[in-house]
């Protein structure tokens, strides 16, 4: 061994002994979200050491990276014992051409990401957005992820809705599980808007990993917000305000007031005419026929009817959503799939006996929480509930396409059955809003 090599080995041994940490300026965990205003997209990523926040992008097929946008990095300190820190970069792209695919990378002069692409959302209301939706996907056993990756790569979706419960859990191992999960979903979340709501698995340190890592519209750190896509108004909210009241009962009331205001606005005749579909997404369902002790198995589930042991009593959400004519409510939390007949207050309101989903007289609920996690899947009670139309404990996720103002299609994909659509529904409505119930 020559002297130079010996020196190198010595240096290596010394730095190991001194524990000199590596420098992390390479961008990772890239994901995108729709910030709510037409022509925009928000790019979010992480570096462990401080760098600038830059996105270089351009129209697919044009000159690469001819456009540049800059943003900011926020320091996030995890609540775990190591108090790990990371920088969360956010860069807003504006004035994107609707329906046009873009190519981008992100980072800084200290390191650039791989190249990704996305299609800017169309602004008009007369197109037919396609979604993947699911909840409860973890770092361990994310069984549906491979299929979702392939679906996304063949450009099957315009947006992905993750209905709460990420990573299991993002805060674990001093938030390294959160890092690893966000690396896993980069394969889908860097290509289409990845829209979220919080679940119970995010609750540690007052939801801080969730609030810091995601970048949803509104100024609520992604806790509740709404956005428009094609003929749809999507409302995302936190069911967790009904359970983690230790973080502030006022949050429950604040959200309720916000929901009411948002629904009021969405129901103004000129708005509902433009975007007739109102779809809500929240983690814990109001109804379910699972064989567990969850909230949704209770007749007076907190999400459905509220809390009566608080001052003042806290209103539930079923009446509110019914009053404002919500068309479809999507949920997760139960690690299974369940489709309900149109239902209000435990009563089935079919459109008709033969065509229950043609002009239904109450909202339709779908529970799709079996994307895959370390807790496996949830079984059902053997009895059949009169409001339950179909149920399955296969791993999987839902696909939805809103064709136009009257037709919405939804299907559940079974990953256990190699991608077979095990259930499907056409929701057809000539009329939207509370007057549709009459
Ligand atoms: C890089 O980040 C690590 C982890 O947060 C930290 O320990 C280290 O001090 C940082 N180094 C520099 C040069 O900022
Ligand atoms: C929890 O976070 C919310 C913001 O989402 C904040 O308003 C509230 O005060 C926090 N609660 C506690 C107990 O820190
Ligand atoms: C309060 O709510 C619980 C369920 O959350 C229910 O069992 C109880 O009957 C309710 N009490 C009153 C007075 O309504
Ligand atoms: C809902 O049903 C319960 C009993 O099944 C009834 O007591 C209650 O009045 C109903 N509420 C509404 C708003 O219809
Ligand atoms: C609703 O429609 C389904 C499918 O036709 C039927 O099985 C169910 O009994 C109906 N429920 C009521 C209350 O009419
Ligand atoms: C809406 O879409 C459905 C499904 O593609 C189609 O059958 C129907 O004719 C469309 N309605 C209008 C008004 O375009
Ligand atoms: Fe959950």
TrEMBL record:
Q: Which residues form the Purple acid phosphatase N-terminal domain?
A: 27-119
Swiss-Prot/TrEMBL keywords:
Glycoprotein, Hydrolase, Signal
> Signal peptide span per the entry?
1-19
Domain Calcineurin-like phosphoesterase positions: 130-337
CDD domains cross-referenced by the UniProt entry? MPP_PAPs
Catalytic reaction list: a phosphate monoester + H2O = an alcohol + phosphate
Boundaries of every Purple acid phosphatase C-terminal domain copy: 362-424
Write out the GO MF terms. acid phosphatase activity
Cross-referenced InterPro entries, in alphabetical order? Calcineurin-like_PHP, Metallo-depent_PP-like, MPP_PAP, PAPs_C, PAPs_N, Purple_acid_Pase-like_N
Q: What's one Pfam family here? A: Metallophos
| Key word Cytoplasm present | no
Known EC number(s)? 3.1.3.2
Top-rank taxon: Eukaryota
What does the similarity note say?
Belongs to the metallophosphoesterase superfamily. Purple acid phosphatase family.
**The protein's name in its UniProt record:** Purple acid phosphatase
Q: Which organism is it from?
A: Coilia grayii (Gray's grenadier anchovy)
């Amino acid at each position: 061994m020559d002297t130079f090599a010996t020196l190198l080995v010595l240096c290596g041994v010394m730095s190991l002994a001194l524990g000199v940490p590596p420098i992390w300026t390479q961008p990772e965990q890239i994901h995108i979200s729709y910030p709510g205003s037409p022509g925009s997209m928000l790019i979010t990523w992480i570096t462990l050491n401080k760098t600038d926040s830059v996105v270089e992008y351009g129209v697919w097929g044009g000159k690469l990276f001819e456009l540049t946008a800059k943003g900011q990095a926020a320091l996030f300190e995890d609540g775990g014992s190591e108090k790990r820190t990371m920088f969360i970069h956010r860069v807003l792209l504006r004035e994107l051409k609707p329906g046009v695919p873009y190519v981008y990378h992100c980072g800084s002069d200290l390191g650039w990401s791989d190249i990704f692409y996305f299609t800017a959302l169309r602004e008009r209301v007369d197109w037919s957005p396609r979604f993947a939706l699911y909840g409860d996907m973890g770092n361990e056993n994310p069984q549906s992820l491979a299929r979702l990756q392939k679906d996304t790569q063949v450009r099957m979706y315009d947006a992905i809705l993750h209905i709460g419960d990420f990573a299991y859990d993002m805060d674990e191992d001093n938030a390294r599980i959160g890092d690893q999960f966000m690396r896993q979903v980069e394969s889908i979340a860097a290509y289409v808007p990845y829209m979220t709501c919080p679940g119970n698995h995010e609750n540690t340190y007052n939801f801080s990993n969730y609030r810091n890592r995601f970048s949803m519209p509104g100024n609520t750190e992604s806790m509740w917000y709404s956005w428009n896509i094609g003929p749809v108004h999507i409302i995302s909210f936190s069911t967790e305000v009904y359970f983690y009241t230790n973080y502030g009962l006022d949050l429950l009331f604040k959200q309720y007031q916000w929901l009411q205001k948002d629904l009021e606005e969405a129901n103004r005749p000129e708005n509902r005419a433009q975007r007739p579909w109102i779809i809500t997404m929240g983690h814990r369902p109001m109804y379910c026929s699972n064989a567990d002790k969850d909230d949704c198995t209770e007749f007076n589930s907190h999400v459905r009817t509220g809390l009566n042991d608080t001052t003042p009593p806290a209103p539930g959400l079923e009446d509110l959503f019914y009053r404002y004519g919500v068309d479809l409510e999507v949920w997760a939390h139960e690690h299974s799939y369940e489709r309900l007949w149109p239902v209000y207050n435990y009563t089935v309101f079919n459109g008709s006996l033969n065509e229950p989903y043609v002009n239904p007289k109450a909202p339709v609920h779908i529970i799709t929480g079996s994307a895959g996690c370390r807790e496996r899947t949830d079984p059902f009670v053997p009895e059949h509930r009169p409001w339950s139309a179909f149920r399955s404990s296969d791993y999987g996720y839902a696909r939805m396409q809103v064709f136009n103002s009257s037709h919405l299609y939804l299907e559940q994909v079974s990953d256990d059955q190699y991608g077979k659509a095990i259930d499907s529904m056409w929701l057809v409505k000539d009329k939207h809003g509370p007057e549709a119930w009459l």
